[in-house]
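Lesson 9: reading folded outputs for more than one chain in a single document. The general rule is that every protein is listed as its sequence immediately followed by its structure tokens, and records are never interleaved. Here is the first one.
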Amino acid sequence: MQPWVHPSAIVDGGAELGPETRVWHFSHVMAGAVIGARCMLGQNCFVSARVKLGNGVRVQNNVSLYDGVELEDDVFCGPSVVFTNVKHPRAFVSRREEYSATKICRGATLGANSTVLAGITVGAYAMVGAGAVVTKDVAPFSLVVGVPAAPVGWVSHAGERLEFGVADVAVCARSGRSYRLVEGALTELLAEPR
């Protein structure tokens, strides 16, 4: 199935949209942007020329993705998430050659109105709470909240909060997948082969 673009949206020639991707009202995708399959850009989104989105990415209303931002497969950006790409901006100093790479890894969630500063990596399946300001890298599966964002726990692939019991093992209530906390990092325990 071909991508679908609302008549009020602008997709510049040279932008790549994957199959089944939808671009909603008043959004703008610049030439050079690469958007994977089955993505959704909500109303009033902006995607700059040097931005890459994987497959299955959902970007809710009022999100601007600036040069240097990469969202891997299955990332969720809540409404009005803010990205930056320059660490020390000045209106009168050109910093186009200093854009920092910001990477949101596979399956991560950024809550509504959260802010991700330039040069940050948010690990796979991490969850950033609504309104949080991310000033440093976020570990995979970590749950961070607040200003500045700080870790308060761990979440599963399905986004469920994990509670650890015997031997630092937790089971996701939604999926049944098991996890172990080892030296401050979360590891999934793979099921035994049959």
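And here is the second record, again sequence then tokens.
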Amino acid sequence: MISGAHAVIYSRDAEADRAFLRDVLRLMGEDIAAFAAEMARARIECSEITEAGWGRLLRITLPGGGKLGVYQPRHRRPAPT
């Protein structure tokens, strides 16, 4: 689940991107491979999963043409305050 984000997204269709973020990305799990499969079922264009020291990265293409990186971290998360 997305618990928070700071993003600047450049878009040719901001309303379509807002609807996508609200309606399609509403449920996300901790498993990037499962997320990629969910995006494929929804016919959302996405990159291959790449491995980095800090996590596994996937880039999806938003309706407005922008790319959005989604990752599964390898690092421990801080405890909630």
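What the second record shows: The domain at 14-73 is CATH 3.30.720 (Signal recognition particle alu RNA binding heterodimer, srp9/1).
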